[in-house]
């Protein structure tokens, strides 16, 4: 994986303070430094564990590593509906690894599933319509071997692994409860997202997590519980909630359009 910085790349060399996060000052086209990137996380399969990475590409559709977009895969049930961690917490036991063009998913017992990271859909692939919460989207079925792996691990029939490709039909968004108009508009403006809940990127700060832990008496949490792509440090707790746009020294620019409850 290339470690060179371009206008669209962010790298975890920021762990030693190389890359800063900038806050867009209201009504001015200038930025002030508000923190540094501490860690980068990539989630190839929705609801499974993520991978801490050194570098990734910022795209309109989300974080990209080795040509694969964040949350490109998901597991669905016999009704073709997402199986989430809330439904099957055992999904958190599965680990993932990327080696070149191969995604490897492993169980705690050591059983492995290797999935090819294809650049495009093959002519003989089967595409199916499935549901992510209330949204309807089209996905590429990953085959019977992958299905058997997840059926065995979850002890559920008819489970399938599917993958999103940007050139499949656009995601059909449905209103979710009392979502803000700006949030609903954001989702409509980016219909080719993979299987992210709301937006292309998820940003959380370490000080916010530390502040939360200071109020928890027993069980503590970490950034892993919140599944962010970007963990920011050297800022005030929850200051990220007010950041309108953030800019990295590499040139990547992200705009904050919605807060996510977890």
Compact overview of the structure:
Helix content is 11%, strand content 32%.
Please, could you describe this protein's structure?
- With 262 residues, this protein is mostly beta strands.
- It has one domain (36-255).
- Helix content is 11%, strand content 32%.
- It is built from 3 helices and 18 strands.
- It has helices spanning 144-154, 181-189, 206-215, and strands at residues 9-11, 20-24, 31-42, 51-53, 55-59, 62-65, 68-69, 73-76, 95-99, 102-106, 112-116, 127-132, 135-141, 160-163, 203-205, 230-233, 245-248, 253-255.
- The strands form 4 sheets. Strands 2, 3, 4, 15, 16, 17 and 18 form a 7-stranded mixed β-sheet that branches. A 4-stranded antiparallel β-sheet has the order 1-5-6-7, with no helix packed on it.
- The radius of gyration is 19 Å and the shape is globular.
- It starts with 8 loop residues before the first strand and ends in a 7-residue tail after the last strand.
- The model is unreliable at 1-20 (pLDDT under 50).
- Pfam families: MOSC, MOSC_N.
- InterPro entries: MoCF_Sase_C, MOCOS_middle.
- This is Mitochondrial amidoxime-reducing component 1.
- GO terms for molecular function: catalytic activity; molybdenum ion binding; pyridoxal phosphate binding.
- Residues 173-262 form the MOSC domain.
Helical fraction equals: 10-25%
In what range is the share of β-strand residues? Answer: 25-35%
The biggest beta sheet is recorded as: 7 strands, mixed
Number of strands: 18
What is the CA-based Rg, rounded? 19 Å
> What overall form do the CA principal axes indicate?
globular
Mean of all residue-level pLDDT scores: 82
Structural class: mainly beta
Q: What ranges have pLDDT less than 50 throughout 5 or more consecutive residues?
A: 1-20
Pfam family, one: MOSC_N
Organism: Araneus ventricosus
Protein name: Mitochondrial amidoxime-reducing component 1
Domain MOSC: 173-262
């Amino acid at each position: 994986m290339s470690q060179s910085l371009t206008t669209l790349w962010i790298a975890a060399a920021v762990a030693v303070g190389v890359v800063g996060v900038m806050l867009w000052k209201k009504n001015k086209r200038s930025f002030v430094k508000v923190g540094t990137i501490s860690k980068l996380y990539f989630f190839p399969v929705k609801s499974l564990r993520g991978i801490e990475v050194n570098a990734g590409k910022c795209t309109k559709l989300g974080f990209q590593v080795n040509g694969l977009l964040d949350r490109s895969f998901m597991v669905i049930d016999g009704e073709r509906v997402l199986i989430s961690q809330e439904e099957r917490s055992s999904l958190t036991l599965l680990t993932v690894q990327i080696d070149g063009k191969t995604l490897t998913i492993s169980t705690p017992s050591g059983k492995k599933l290797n999935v090819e990271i294809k650049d495009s859909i093959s002519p003989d692939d089967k595409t199916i319509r499935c549901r992510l919460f209330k949204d309807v989207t089209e996905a590429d079925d990953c085959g019977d071997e992958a299905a058997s792996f997840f059926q065995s691990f979850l002890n559920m029939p008819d489970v399938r692994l599917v993958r999103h490709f940007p050139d499949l039909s656009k995601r059909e968004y449905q209103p979710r409860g009392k979502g803000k108009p700006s949030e609903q508009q954001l989702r409509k403006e980016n219909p080719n997202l993979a299987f992210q809940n709301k937006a292309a990127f998820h940003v959380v700060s370490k000080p916010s997590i530390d502040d939360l832990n200071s109020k928890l008496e027993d069980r503590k949490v970490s950034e892993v519980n919140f599944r962010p792509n970007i963990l920011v440090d050297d800022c005030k707790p929850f200051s990220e909630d007010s950041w309108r746009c953030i800019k990295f020294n590499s040139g990547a620019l992200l705009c904050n359009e919605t807060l996510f409850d977890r």
